[in-house]
Amino acid sequence: MQIKPSEVVGVILAGGLARRMGGGDKSMLKLGGRRILDYVIESAQNQLDTVIINANGDPERFAEFNLPVQADIVPDFAGPLAGVVSAMAWVTQNQPNATHIITLAADTPFFPADYVTRMLELMQLKDQRLACASYQGRTQPVFGLWPVDLFDDLYKALVEDDIRKVDRFTAPYGVADVAFDELTSNPFFNVNKPEDIALGEQQLANK
Question: What integer pLDDT is reported at residue 25 of this predicted model?
Answer without folding.
Answer: 75
